[in-house]
Amino acid sequence: MGILLVMVQRKKCIAANWKLNKTRTETKDFIEALRSHFGNEPLCDVLIAPSFTSIEQALRSAAEGLIHIGAQNVSEMNDGAFTGEVSVEMLQELGAHFVLIGHSERRTIFGESDERIRGKVIRAQEAKMPFILCVGETLEQREAGHTHQVIQEQIRIALEEFSEIELLRIAYEPIWAIGTGKTASPDQAQAAHKEIRELLQERFGEKANEIQLLYGGSVKPENTFALLSEPDIDGCLVGGASLDAEQFYQIIVEAEKCCQ
Predict the structure, then answer these.
(1) Any catalytic annotation for residue 230?
(2) Could you give the C-alpha distances from 181 to 12, 76, 176, 208, in angstroms and in order?
């Protein structure tokens, strides 16, 4: 199948991954501070993934329809003797709107394989849970010229049994740029996102043009507009800069400039 060159106007998306940060009280204070800036509904999708223990508080504090609250991880099992795991059904009962799957820290620190990540995708699809699939290469893989191969393999395996693309967002996070202060240039990021888009087009056809692709890796207000001005970058998955309400709001403001 040839690549389909179809222009689709996709909404921008700014997502926060808080990682191991913020208590319930801090979560409440952050979201109330962020909400105070929203005179109207944001022009872009605003997502926040707090820790498991803060999801319920985040949902209480978030204005319905303004801020979507999700989880940073989910189990590939539905139930059973799996100490420390949280199922997709448990997250849905809380009211979570989405989940991150395959973040690089889950892959590199906790040893999650592509096959295990595929299992999480299968559970999310079965439960109709929207998710952000995270993919990306290490510095060594980039320097060896293996970026395309790594991303292709991660996506191929994760989505092997997947078909419901309305549930899917993909975040490209070069591991060498996460928390390091190093950011892929807009050209570098666009090249990776274009490859991802083409992979998705080969798999899903024209519908792939509707999927939001996010960039993650030392995102801050100063580089948001340039990144989101690229044709295949539809948003950002923000780590450290999402922990400060004012800084995170400024990233949203920069994203909204691309929507006008």
Answers:
(1) no
(2) 23, 32, 9, 31
Task: Say how far apart CA 51 and CA 62 lie, in whole Å.
Answer: 15
Q: How far apart are CA 171 and CA 214, in angstroms?
A: 4
What is the pLDDT at residue 3? 43
Query: Is residue 18 exposed (0-12), middle (13-18) or buried (19+ Cβ within 10 Å)?
Result: buried
Min mean pLDDT across 166-180, 199-213, 219-233 is at 166-180
Active site residue 103: yes
Q: Of 173, 193, 230, 254, which one is the catalytic site residue?
A: 173
Residue 176 pLDDT: 76
Confidence of residue 178 (pLDDT cuts 50, 70, 90): confident
Sorted by where each begins, the domain ranges of the chain are: 13-257
Q: Which residues pair with 45 in a beta bridge?
A: 13
Whole-model pTM: value is: 0.94
| CATH topology classification for 13-257 | TIM Barrel (3.20.20)
Catalytic residue among 103, 105, 193, 230: 103
